[in-house]
Design a protein that fits this description.
- This protein has 763 residues and is mostly helical.
- Among the domains are: 112 residues, Alpha-Beta Plaits (2-Layer Sandwich), CATH 3.30.70; 144 residues, Tetracycline Repressor, domain 2, CATH 1.10.357; 106 residues, Exocyst complex component Exo70 (Monooxygenase, Up-down Bundle).
- α9 packs antiparallel against α11.
- Pfam families: Exo70_C, Exo70_N, HisG_C.
- GO terms for molecular function: ATP binding; ATP phosphoribosyltransferase activity; magnesium ion binding; phosphatidylinositol-4,5-bisphosphate binding.
- Belongs to the EXO70 family.
Length: 763
């Protein structure tokens, strides 16, 4: 069909063939034949031919897998008993699945072919087969030619083999002689190089003499260290060779160093390790210079302000570290040990002392300003301690870098910090003694601050520093224990002060205002709560209630604070107990002092002012947390009691306004006898005298609390004014005297104005 120019089979597969007219009506068989062949081609394009081998016992199973368009062709395999070969048609779209199923059913040698029943295709295949046969014939001819050439080449190679055997027998003796000569030449070269190396070492003295004796350049020490290394290598090499010619050179090395006496040749060889001593001395001197230059005192306030750690200049640190490491590593090789301990201690101890000196001086301000109000964190000594421990920690890091020898490092670090540590502890002892001598409690809060901060942060740093220094005596902890003893002692002392022992001879205030002992006690208690954490620890160390039974002589000079209580309520409870005991003691002290006033009213005013001040302070935020309701109620009750006592002092005055109304014959008695008139005059006179005396005295009394003053005067007026009003209303219309103004000096409003002038010094 292709030869006839018809469409491709692929096109036909997608076309609908319609027979329009038979060109040969007389021969319908040809048309049917063509149509049948076209149908066969179309049908065959959807199928492939699948050939496989299978055991006969599985034949029925696999035949069901490949039913095909026609029944499969089955033939027996002679080479395998019980096996058959099967050829079946399978649709192209199912071939993948069918192959998997066949393999699962035991089929082998599965081969798939495309199908074609086109004669043109078979003709083309036959033509291609003819071409392939011709190619094979040509290749066979060439192969025969190559076989002949190969046979000739084998003969030639055999001839070459024989010739090479003869050549080897001739050249082998020559080769062995050449190897011996080559080895001899190599030995000569190595010997020449070794001799040249020895000559170089022998000449090294003359080359390096001037450079070594001059000393290192401070700006660039590396060339000097390299020269030292070259000399060290030369000495080790010459010593290892033990050549007689080396003795003279070693003598020259020792001589130019200028530090070793010339010796006999036999002794010089034993002392060759002294060769580098001069160079090492130069390096030691350079180390001192660099360390001194890098140890200029610095301003400690800078890194305290920036919360930084003091460090050495990176340039100096790098140079000193490299230099010390080189010297340390060279000690065992040279046999000369350089001990930097003493210069390190001398230089760095002065640096630490001078750097910390401003802090030390600032911490003494407490002695120059006794009694000043201390603010948390303002302690110069606290900053001094913080600065010192940071510098000690930095010094530990520096010693680790500059002193590679562990023994030298320990001794150097310990010696460097000791003078500064001694001065720190000495200053702390001076401050502690100053606080104990001061007799006031303003400075004790500085100790609370120091103890609090030391326990929070500084102690851990000091412990680390002292462990590094391996110090057996802990001077810092002894100082803290002395501070702790003073702090514990202060609670016992303050309770004594609340008893009034310290200022028992102090003059009482003339106006009954709040006593200094009361205001001072409350201020002290409020400030205690600012450091409640450390106060709890101190009181727990003292023991609950022991502040009342312990004497000052019973407190040791050194006292270690107890650990915080495991019970979280123990600390606040002991603080409340101490405050309660102090206030109870203060009440007793104030009550005793009030009895020193000649006027009972002034004593009542004195207690009223003090108890009211205490009650208000206990309700303030600063003390309310430590004062429970019972304590507040207790002082409120004391205030009410003193108000009642004060009103009782008005009794002599108010009694004059009390009288008896007489009734005669069922009617009020309106006529007065001489005795009645005289009695009324006496009552007015006595009232005026008592009131005026109280007015003159009590208008100068003090009652700073306006609310309390109004409450007290309101109570007075509620009793006095109604009685006085009734009294004058009753008698001013009676003819008890010819001169009423002499006895009735004040009306009700005037009396009230005068009462309002009580406790007003400016009235």
């Amino acid at each position: 069909m292709r030869a006839a120019g018809l469409h491709d089979i692929a096109t036909l597969l997608n076309s609908q063939a319609v027979l329009i007219r038979n060109r040969h009506p007389s021969n319908p068989t040809l048309v049917n034949l063509i149509t049948s062949r076209i149908k066969g081609v179309i049908a065959a394009s959807r199928y492939v031919l699948c050939n496989y081998n299978v055991e006969r016992q599985n034949l029925s199973t696999v035949v069901k897998i490949t039913p095909g368009r026609q029944a499969p062709t089955v033939s027996t395999l002679d080479s395998h008993d019980g096996w058959v070969a099967v050829s079946a048609m399978v649709e192209s779209k199912d071939i993948a699945r069918v192959m998997d199923e066949l393999e699962g059913a035991g089929a082998t040698d599965i081969i798939v072919f495309s199908m074609s029943n086109c004669r043109a295709d078979r003709k083309r295949d036959l033509a291609r087969l003819d071409e392939d046969s011709a190619d094979l014939a040509f290749l066979q001819t060439n192969l025969d030619k190559m076989a002949g050439l190969t046979e000739k080449m084998v003969g030639m190679l055999g001839s070459f083999d024989d010739r090479l055997v003869n050549l080897e027998a001739s050249i082998l003796p020559i080769h062995k002689s050449t190897q011996r000569l080559t080895h001899l030449a190599d030995n000569i070269d190595k010997t020449l190089k070794a001799v040249d190396n020895i000559v170089t070492y022998l000449d090294l003295v003359n080359k390096e003499e001037r450079f070594i004796t001059k000393g290192p350049d401070q700006e660039n020490i590396l060339p000097y260290l390299k020269a030292m290394a070259r000399i060290k290598d030369a000495l080790e090499y010459l010593e290892g060779k033990k050549l007689k010619a080396c003795e003279k050179v070693m003598g020259q090395m020792v001589r130019y160093l200028g530090t070793i006496r010339m010796k006999d040749a036999e002794d010089l060889f034993l002392d060759t390790r002294q060769l580098l001593k001069a160079g090492m001395l130069h390096l030691e001197t350079l180390f001192r210079k660099w360390l001194t230059a890098a140890s200029e005192p610095i301003d400690p306030h800078v890194f305290v302000r920036d919360n930084d750690t003091p460090t050495m200049s990176s340039m100096y640190l790098q140079n000193l570290s490299q230099l010390s490491q080189y010297i340390f590593s060279s000690e065992s090789e040279i046999g000369y040990a350089v001990d930097f301990t003493k210069p390190y201690i001398d230089i760095r101890s002065v640096f630490l002392v001078k750097t910390l000196q401003p802090m030390s001086q600032a911490s003494m301000l407490i002695e120059r300003n006794p009694g000043s109000h201390y603010e948390r964190g303002s302690s110069g000594f606290l900053k001094y301690m913080d600065c010192a421990v940071k510098m000690f920690k930095a010094e530990s890091n520096l010693a680790a870098k500059l002193l590679p020898n562990p023994t030298h490092r320990l001794v150097g670090f310990r010696g460097a910090i000791q003078p500064a540590l001694t001065e720190l502890v000495g200053m702390g002892r001076q401050i502690n003694a100053s606080i104990r001598r001061s007799g006031t409690h303003a400075e004790i809060f500085m100790l609370f601050d120091v103890l609090d901060e030391y326990g929070r942060e500084i102690r851990e740093l000091f412990d680390e520093v002292l462990r590094t220094a391996q110090k057996k005596e802990d001077e810092v902890q002894d100082l803290i224990n002395a501070f702790s003893a003073t702090a514990v002692r202060s609670f016992v002392e303050f309770l004594d002060e609340a008893k009034g022992k310290k200022d028992k001879d102090a003059a009482l205030s003339t106006d009954g205002t709040v006593a200094e002992v009361a205001s001072g006690t409350l201020n002290y208690l409020k400030r205690l709560l600012d450091w409640q954490d450390i106060v709890e620890v101190i009181l727990l160390t003292l023991g609950d209630g022991n502040w009342s039974t312990t004497t000052l002589t019973g407190v040791p000079e050194l006292l270690s604070l107890s650990a915080p209580a495991r019970n979280p309520n123990a600390g606040p409870a002991i603080v409340k107990h101490y405050i309660s005991d102090v206030l109870d003691t203060l009440v007793v002290t104030l009550t005793l002092r009030s009895k020193s006033y000649k006027r009972a009213a002034l004593g009542s005013i004195f207690l009223l002012n003090n108890f009211n001040h205490i009650a208000k302070q206990l309700r303030s935020p600063s003390l309310s947390a430590a004062a429970d309701e019972d304590m507040q109620a207790k002082f409120s009750k004391l205030v009410r009691k003193q108000i009642d006592n004060y009103q009782e002092s008005w009794k002599p005055c108010v009694e004059n306004l009390m009288d008896v109304t007489y009734v005669k014959g069922g009617a009020l008695k309106t006529s007065l006898g001489n005795s009645d008139k005289q009695l009324i005059k006496e009552k007015f006179k006595n009232f005026n005298t008592e009131f005026e005396d109280m007015w003159r005295a009590q208008k100068s009394y003090a009652m700073p609390d306006a609310e309390l003053r109004n409450q007290v005067l309101r109570g007075v007026k509620q009793v006095l004014l109604p009685l006085y009003s009734r009294f004058i209303d009753k008698y001013q219309s009676m003819d008890f005297t010819k001169n009423p103004a002499k006895y009735i000096k004040y009306d009700k409003d005037q009396l009230e104005r005068m009462v309002n002038q009580f406790f007003e010094p400016s009235a």
